[in-house]
Structures are given as structure tokens and as C-alpha cells.
Specification:
The complex is a heterotetramer of chains A (about 180), B (about 100), C (about 375) and D (about 140). With about 180 residues, chain A is mostly helical. Chain A has three domains: about 90 residues, Four Helix Bundle (Hemerythrin (Met), subunit A), CATH 1.20.120.1200; about 35 residues; about 40 residues. By secondary structure, chain B is mainly α. Chain B contains three helices and no strands. In chain C, helix 3 packs across helix 12. Chain C is built from 15 helices and two strands. Chain C is an all-alpha fold. Chain C is globular. Chain D has two domains: about 30 residues; about 80 residues. In chain D, helix 2 runs antiparallel to helix 3. The longest helix of chain D has about 30 residues. The chains are: A mainly alpha (about 180), B mainly alpha (about 100), C mainly alpha (about 375), D mainly alpha (about 140). Chains in contact: A-B, A-C, A-D, B-D, C-D. At the C-D interface, helix 1, helix 3, helix 5, strand 2 and helix 8 of C face helix 1, helix 2 and helix 3 of D.
């Protein structure tokens, strides 16, 4: 019961905030809607029993990426966007008229529906085992996987992050104008 | 109610919205927001499959690394946005037409 | 599977009669117990936060040879209630240039981030709302909502003082999160788990069993944590985001009445939470020396032990505020990145090497030889 | 089987819900109790008595972004270190302490390289490099 409620509220938060990101003109509000969507995804992870991934999602996105995006918006002149902003309804005419959108929507819908049908067919062949409400601790298993099976990815990710740090610092470093 | 499909549909919606954000918005920061949504959709799929299909935690590891890569991508992408703004004084994507100078 | 306060209570017999009272519906009973205890904890923390403002004035008065508040109630003890009533009856003013949605949202983010941390704070062995497996990691993660709230509060006001305070606040909070997190990592490494139950359970009641005196690196990590935590909660000497003498009052310059009250409440509760975390990570938490039986009265004693340690740390925080002068921004950043972070990383490496070389034994165990 | 209510999610959600409730309750009380006499001058942004000039949403120094950048990289690295740190003791007791130590230290050493690079390039100083760039400009 509780899990269902958590699932529904997280799903609604995720989807509605994602649509908010799309529809809102102000880029600052878009970032805050993204924050809501990411929190909703964290809630969905929690309902899937992925406690460590859920907390990682909060830690990296809420504490890191969203703040970084807000900083970037401020650094490029916060109010500048409100006038320049574009939303779905303000699409440039070169991107098509109502007919193209209608046909695209229809094709997309058919595609999605067939895919769901296909997925359902596939999934029905999979025995649904282990689906209970019990959440095993994932932390120590993830730790073991990180130092045993995925140790190369673990080490290389540190190199990737070093590269990202150095590259981004070089790009963003304040320098002499002109 | 809570089964694989509901998670897949949510992740599908996230993916589509992210794609539309990437296509429709002209602000580079907004395009990065769209990319974050898409990456989240894929990570959600991995975790959902890991719980309902494979029954091991490799999916969690995958989504963990997706989050790591998303953070690195956001860091570099926003650095490029800021540099672009210093040169062009705008962050409208259509202004990005030159490879150098 | 995480231990919670309900699964702890279900070991006792009265739980079964309670369950019968609720028509054997475990969900409803669990919800009721959680809600009651959560209300108690929130009320307690709000009172502690309120008394914190009182203590702040009283201690500062002591340090400056003044009297301090002494009109409302005995010794001025009810001053915080008067302040609360005053805040509620103040007019809500919003700058007409403000971003109205975000202006509403910012205090909520701060409040949510702080309240959510209370769920994993170990008040005693049984009285920990949820002993999550990811306990301390969850606490660090969810409290980053506060930094976001500070930034959005500063941004949404559209006032220059607020904007400067919000920018400074956000960059300070995120910077100091790094040494704090790495110091916590050192303790996670020593304890072999992230849950508060595991971490506190690895320590004992006597000082030589605490992680503070486990090895020299953990000892250093405590001070790195303390400095970083002071900065993360925007306390003096790191109160640059709300420096009265230069930024009016920083990110909440434009906030009045109840909304300002929420910011203040969140800040004071956060100080309490940070002190509680320090007490349970480094100072042995709720452990009582020499007692290992697990009955309900013992839980009360454990609670008292935990609160004593936490409130002593709270006193030290206030004491520091009225003793040390404020840092400059460049000093703030160089303290974080050039001193605390390298020291924290070295502590982490030292702890890892200590674990392998001495097989996880603390100094006391090595010296005394034995268990 | 253990019902999900026993797991730790519920208290977390309840605390967040209480925060939201308190927020709206406080707002409600304030709406009921507080006076409401708005005026234009009252709702101007505070600027020490002067009328505010321009918007506060202006551009900020790139320093803030560089700090955020270093933060996010370290944040992610600490996230990856958490699960390894929490099983370090277990591995040590299983006799694999040396292996775990090598993995852990090599991970941290890359972290140190990052901070050493930023230190050397002056990204960690707040004022000095700013003065440095000013000096360049005056040349």
C-alpha cells in the first residue's frame, strides 16, 4: 500500500516535472522542474529497492548537477533568458506545421504501442520470481561488484573524472578578454 | 500497478520529453537539461530490468556509472556553454555556427 | 532490510496488543507509530532550535558581560516562543521584482532537506526512526537540498545583497561538503558500514573505544569534519553568506515573517543535526559504558547520553561563534581547498593503510593488547 | 515475508511530508494572523534606503563555476568510494586487505592529481589569480 502510494507520487512528480521542463519559458524554472523530475526518479529507484542508486541520484544531481546548472545560468546573465526563451509552442516555422506534427505524433504513437505490445510479449515469457516487498541491502553487494567484477570500470571512471575536471577547468578558466 | 511496464512507460515518457526538449529549445543550457532527462530514462530502465528480469545488481552498477558520466558530461558541457557565452555574449544554439574564431 | 523503530518495538510484547488494537493491519500501525514519533522528534528539534536562539543570546551575553534576555518567562526562557509569535504576526512582504514561485519554494527546500535528515539520526539504539543501510550517505545527500534552497532564496529575491549572499552561500556549502564527505568516508571505512546502527555499534561507551581515538587519522578527521560542518551550516566564523556587517543579512534579506522563520528554524535544526552526527560518528554516540542489555529503560539512558554529547557540541558551536572573527571569501576558499581537502584525503589514505597494517585494531587495543 | 512498512522508506517520506505540512501550516497561520498593507515602496528590494538600480540578476565571476566544477567531480568520486569503503573492513577480514588497499589508493591518487592540477594552475585561489588576470589586462 505504502509502496504503491510512493510509486504513484514519484511517477507523477517525475512525469509532470519533466513536462514542466519542456513547457516553461524561464530557464531558471526549467532547472527547478528538472530538480523535481530527478527527485521523482530517486523515489522510483527507492521503490525498486535500489537504495544506494537512489541516494546517489540525490547526491550527484540535486547536490551537484542542478546547482552547477543554476550557476551556469547565473554566469551567463540570469534575466537574459526570459526574453530569449523558446518553448514548444514557440517553435520556429522551419521545423514544420501542424500537419507534420500530427503525422509525427501518430507515427510515434503507433511505434510506442507496437513496442509495448512486443515488450509485453517478451516479458510474459520471463518467469516473475522474487517479486516481493523485501529489500535486500544493496550497498555491500555493489561494493563487492565494484572491487571484483567491475574493478576496471571503477578505476577508469576516476581517470574519466580527472579528464573531465582538467578539460572543463581549461575551458571555463577566466582569461583575458579578446 | 507496480510492474516492469509502468517503469518502462515512465522511462519512455522521460526519454521522449528529453528528446523534445533537446530539439525544440534553443537555449544551450536547456538542451543540457534534455540530455540529463534522457540519461535518467536509461538509468531507470537499467534498474527496473535489474529488479524484475535479471535479478542481480549489474543494472545498479550500470546506472551508477551512467550517473557518473552524466555528471562529467554536465561539467564539461556547462564549461563549454560559459566559454561560448564569453565569446558570443549569447547562448542561443543557432549562434554556434563556427568551428573556430 | 533496514532496522526501524517499528521493527525494534515489534520485539516487545505490547506491540502485539497494539497490533490487535489496529485490527492486525501492520501498515496502519506502523504509520501511526512513525507519525507520532516523527511529530515528537520534530517538536523536540524545533524546541531545541528555539532554545538555541535563546542560548545563543544568553551565551553571547555572558561572553560580553551583559545580561541577555530576561523578561519573558523565568530567566527569559520563553523568549523563543515570543519570537515565534512575533514572526507569525509580521506582514509577509515580497519584493515586486522577485521571482514569486521560487521565492515561495526556497524555504521549503531548506526545511525539507533538514527535516529529512532527522529520519536517520540515532537518538538511541532503538529510537532511530530508520536505520538505513545507506544512513550517513543519505544524510549527506539530502542535506545538499539546503544549499539549493539558499541559492534559490538569494536568486529569487532579486536584491543585490540576497544574490551575493546566495551565490556565496551555495559555493561555500558545496565546497565544504567535500572535506566533510571525505572525513565521513574515513569513518565508514573504519566501521565497515554506512548505517548509523553499524557505525555506533562499532564503538563503545568509554573514550578509548570511540572512533575519535581509534587512530591519529580519525582524530584529525574529527577536526576536519567539525570545521567543515561549521561552514556547511553557515555558522561563524564561516557566516559569510549572511554576514550582517557587509551583506545586510545575505540570502534572507528580503524574507520576512514566517518565511524568514523557516530559514532560521532550518538553520538551527541543521546545527543540531550536524552536532548529532559528530557525536555518533566520532564520540561514541548513544553508547553507555559497561551496559549491554537491551531493555526499554536503557533506551532512555542512551537517549540522555546522546543528547548530552550533542548539546555539549552545540554549546561549543555557539562559543566559537562569539569568539572568532569572520573569514574573508578568499581565505574561506583556500581553507577549504588548500588545507581541509588535502588533509581529509590524507586522513582517508592513512585510515585505509592503518586498517590493513594493524588489522583494524585501534590504538587502545594495540597498547592494552587484547580484545 | 516482511511488509514494506517495516523498511526505512516510510519515516523518510513522513519527515519530508511533515516539512511540507509545517511550511503550508505556517503560511496559513501567517495569512490569518499577519496584517496586510502592501505598498509599492514597501515591496522594493532593500538597498540601504536607495531606490534599487537595475536587476540583481547580473553576470557573476566564472570563479563560482570553477568551484562548482571541482566540487561536482569530487562529489562523484566520493560517491564511488562509499560502497568500497563500506566493504573495506569485510575484505580486510577476509584476507584481501592488500588488494582492496591497492584499488582504493590508486583511485584516491587520481583524485589527488586532479586537486594538484587545479592548485598549480591557480584555480583554487580566489583573489590572486583574479589580480593576475587584471595585471595581464593592464599590460
Amino acid at each position: 500500500m505504502f509502496l504503491q502510494l510512493l510509486f504513484i507520487s514519484s511517477a507523477l512528480l517525475t512525469v509532470l516535472c519533466a513536462i514542466g521542463v519542456l513547457m516553461v519559458k524561464n530557464i531558471m524554472h526549467s532547472c527547478v522542474f528538472l530538480l523535481g523530475s530527478l527527485l521523482g526518479v530517486a523515489g522510483l529507484y527507492a521503490t525498486l529497492g535500489a537504495d544506494f542508486v537512489a541516494v546517489t541520484q540525490i547526491m550527484v544531481y540535486v547536490g551537484g548537477v542542478v546547482i552547477l546548472m543554476l550557476f551556469a545560468v547565473m554566469l551567463t546573465g540570469g534575466k537574459d533568458f526570459i526574453s530569449r526563451a523558446q518553448n514548444l509552442l514557440g517553435l520556429p516555422a522551419s521545423m514544420g506545421n501542424k500537419l507534420t506534427y500530427g503525422v509525427g505524433l501518430l507515427v510515434g504513437l503507433v511505434f510506442v504501442l507496437t513496442n509495448i505490445k512486443l515488450l509485453m510479449g517478451i516479458a510474459q515469457t520471463i518467469p516473475s520470481k522474487m517479486i516481493n516487498n523485501e529489500f535486500p541491502s544493496t550497498v555491500s553487494q555493489i561494493g563487492h561488484l565494484l572491487v571484483k567484477d567491475h574493478v576496471l570500470a571503477f578505476e577508469i571512471s576516476s581517470v574519466l573524472l580527472l579528464g573531465a575536471l582538467v578539460g572543463a577547468a581549461i575551458i571555463a578558466r577566466p582569461r583575458k578578454q579578446n | 500497478m507496480m510492474n516492469l511496464y509502468s517503469y518502462l512507460i515512465i522511462s519512455l515518457i522521460l526519454f521522449v520529453v528529453g528528446l523534445v526538449v533537446m530539439i525544440a529549445r534553443k537555449n544551450i543550457v536547456a538542451i543540457l537539461l534534455g540530455i540529463e532527462l534522457i540519461l535518467n530514462a536509461s538509468a531507470l530502465n537499467f534498474v527496473a530490468y535489474s529488479r524484475y528480469v535479471t535479478n542481480n545488481l549489474d543494472g545498479h552498477i550500470f546506472s551508477l556509472f551512467i550517473i557518473v558520466i552524466a555528471a562529467a558530461e554536465a561539467a564539461v558541457g556547462l564549461a563549454i556553454v560559459i566559454r561560448f557565452f564569453q565569446i558570443k555574449e549569447t547562448i542561443h544554439i543557432d549562434e554556434a555556427t563556427q568551428l573556430r574564431n | 532490510m533496514n532496522q526501524t523503530v517499528v521493527s525494534y518495538l515489534s520485539k516487545y510484547e505490547f506491540y502485539d496488543s497494539l497490533l490487535a488494537l489496529f485490527g492486525n493491519n501492520q501498515g496502519v500501525l506502523a504509520f501511526t507509530i512513525y507519525l507520532l514519533l516523527a511529530l515528537i522528534i520534530v517538536g523536540m528539534c524545533a524546541t531545541i532550535g528555539g532554545l538555541g536562539t535563546y542560548a545563543e543570546r544568553k551565551i553571547s551575553a555572558d561572553l560580553q558581560a551583559r545580561v541577555g534576555p530576561n523578561r519573558v518567562g523565568p530567566y527569559g526562557l520563553l523568549q523563543f516562543l515570543a519570537d515565534g509569535v512575533k514572526m507569525m504576526t509580521k506582514e509577509d512582504i515580497m519584493p515586486f521584482t522577485a521571482d514569486k514561485t521560487l521565492f515561495y519554494l526556497a524555504p521549503l527546500l531548506c526545511l525539507t532537506g533538514v527535516f529529512a535528515t532527522l529520519a536517520v539520526l540515532p537518538f538511541s539504539g532503538g529510537f532511530i526512526m530508520a536505520d538505513l543501510n545507506v544512513g550517513i550517505f543519505y544524510l549527506v545527500a539530502i542535506s545538499s537540498l539546503v544549499g539549493l534552497g539558499v541559492f534559490l532564496g538569494g536568486y529569487a529575491s532579486n536584491s543585490k545583497w540576497s544574490m551575493l549572499g546566495g551565490m556565496r552561500g551555495a559555493s561555500q556549502i558545496i565546497s565544504y561538503e567535500i572535506p566533510v564527505t571525505i572525513s565521513i568516508l574515513a569513518i565508514v571505512l573504519l566501521a565497515g558500514g554506512m548505517g548509523f546502527g553499524t557505525i555506533v555499534g562499532q564503538q563503545g561507551g568509554l573514550p578509548h573505544q570511540w572512533f575519535l581515538f581509534h587512530n591519529p587519522f580519525a582524530f584529525m578527521a574529527f577536526f576536519v569534519y567539525s570545521v567543515g560542518a561549521l561552514a556547511e551550516t553557515n555558522r561563524a566564523p564561516f557566516d559569510l553568506p549572511e554576514a550582517e556587517s557587509e551583506l545586510v543579512s545575505g540570502y534572507h534579506t528580503e524574507y520576512t515573517g514566517m518565511r524568514f522563520g523557516f530559514f532560521a528554524l532550518a538553520e538551527y535544526i541543521e546545527v543540531f543535526v550536524v552536532c548529532g552526527v559528530a557525536a555518533s560518528l566520532f564520540l561514541g554516540g548513544y553508547n553507555i559504558p559497561g551496559i549491554s542489555i537491551d531493555i526499554l529503560p536503557i533506551q532512555a539512558v542512551q537517549f540522555v547520553v546522546f543528547m548530552t554529547k550533542t548539546l555539549l557540541l552545540y554549546y561549543v558551536v555557539i562559543w566559537i561563534r562569539w569568539t572568532l572573527p569572520r573569514l574573508r571569501v578568499d581565505q574561506l576558499m583556500s581553507v577549504c581547498w588548500k588545507y581541509l581537502t588535502p588533509i581529509a584525503i590524507l586522513n582517508l589514505m592513512g585510515c585505509a593503510i592503518w586498517m590493513v597494517v594493524f588489522n583494524g585494531k585501534s590504538i587502545a587495543e594495540l597498547v592494552l593488547g587484547g580484545h | 515475508m516482511i511488509p514494506a512498512e517495516f523498511d526505512g522508506l516510510m519515516p523518510v517520506v513522513i519527515f519530508m511530508g511533515l516539512a511540507v505540512l509545517l511550511f503550508f501550516g505556517g503560511h496559513f497561520l501567517s495569512v490569518v494572523l499577519a496584517p496586510k498593507k502592501p505598498s509599492h515602496l514597501k515591496s522594493t528590494p532593500y538597498e540601504c534606503g536607495e531606490l534599487p538600480v537595475g536587476s540583481a540578476w547580473s553576470m557573476f565571476n566564472v570563479r563560482f563555476y570553477v568551484v562548482g566544477l571541482i566540487f561536482i567531480i569530487f562529489d562523484v568520486e566520493s560517491v564511488l568510494m562509499f560502497p568500497v569503503a563500506s566493504i573495506f573492513k569485510e575484505l580486510n577480514e577476509m584476507g584481501q586487505g592488500g588488494y582492496a588497499l591497492i584499488i582504493f589508493l590508486s583511485f584516491i591518487s587520481v583524485l589527488i592529481e586532479g586537486i594538484a592540477y587545479c592548485w598549480r594552475k591557480g584555480d583554487l585561489d580566489w583573489v590572486k589569480s583574479f589580480q593576475h588576470s587584471l595585471k595581464k589586462e593592464t599590460k
